[in-house]
Amino acid sequence: MQRTAVVTGASSGIGAATAKRLAAEGWTVVAAARRLDRLGALSAEQPGIRPQALDVTDPRSVDDLADAVPHCDLLVANAGGAFDLAPLPDAEAETWARTYDVNVLGTVRTVQALLPALQAAKGHVVLTGSTAGRWVYEGGGGYVAAKHALAALRDTWRLELVESGVRVSEVAPGMVHTEEFSAIRFGGDEARAASVYEGVEALTAEDVADAIVWVAGRPPHVNIDLVQLTPQQQAGVGKVVRR
Ligand code: NDP
């Protein structure tokens, strides 16, 4: 039977690279995000990709996704992002709420909605976490708290879903040079975004996709709890050696 994967946040960066890689390896891929034009371009580039409009912060949109995917072997819950780099005195609760909504509640909504299909298929949930789910850094509070929450959900869900045969894994990258992540974090300030990667050979979206596809490709009796990957030059969030 044809294997079906849903990849959220597939319109750019890690999600787009993962959707392409899975489709190239023979999966039918439902590529979901808000920007349908980008998803259309992705499906034109790589056969096997089906675009699906999705806003993980909108429960109706998430229900539409579940209706469109009655069979699901793999969910790569990847939609997310950071929206500030603000230490406590400057932190805005609204920005933290948005960060939590997209990264954590958005993932909860997506996994919950696809759960019947995943359970029927004894499927696999792979979360795109972050080193920010284990390491902390100044100014990172809102994002770090959200990715720590995601890591906690990974382990909670594994306990809750083990009887159904559904596996739950996390792929947690450090610094990945995707075209939009830092630009979004810094409100479109491209120069500030570029400075994040100066002198560092950061991970690429394809490096992370490679890890996700490896995790998803383990046989059903093997569960990979966590894969954390970083650039060689990054020994900790606050310890990046620039050359
Ligand atoms: P991008 O900004 O390129 O990708 C984010 C994706 O999430 C986009 O496809 C975006 O699509 C989607 N998205 C954002 N909001 C929503 C929403 N409300 N509903 C549905 N989709 C949404 O960044 P990356 O590829 O770098 O990041 C992907 C994941 O990896 C994120 O979870 C991020 O936190 C994590 N990560 C990134 C790291 C990095 O250094 N880049 C490091 C560690 C983890 P659209 O706008 O079209 O909806």
Outline the structure in words:
- The chain has eight helices and nine strands.
- It is an alpha/beta fold and 243 residues long.
- It has one domain: Rossmann fold, CATH 3.40.50.720.
- A seven-stranded parallel beta sheet has the order 3-2-1-4-5-6-7, sandwiched between helices. It has a two-stranded antiparallel sheet with strand order 8-9.
- It starts with a strand and ends with a strand.
- The mean pLDDT is 97.
- Bound molecules: NADPH dihydro-nicotinamide-adenine-dinucleotide phosphate.
- NADPH dihydro-nicotinamide-adenine-dinucleotide phosphate binds next to helix 1, helix 4 and helix 6.
The CATH topology turns out to be: Rossmann fold
Helices and strands, in N-to-C order?
A: EHEHEHEHEHEHHHEEE
Strand tally: 9
N- to C-terminal separation? 49 Å
Bound molecules: NADPH dihydro-nicotinamide-adenine-dinucleotide phosphate
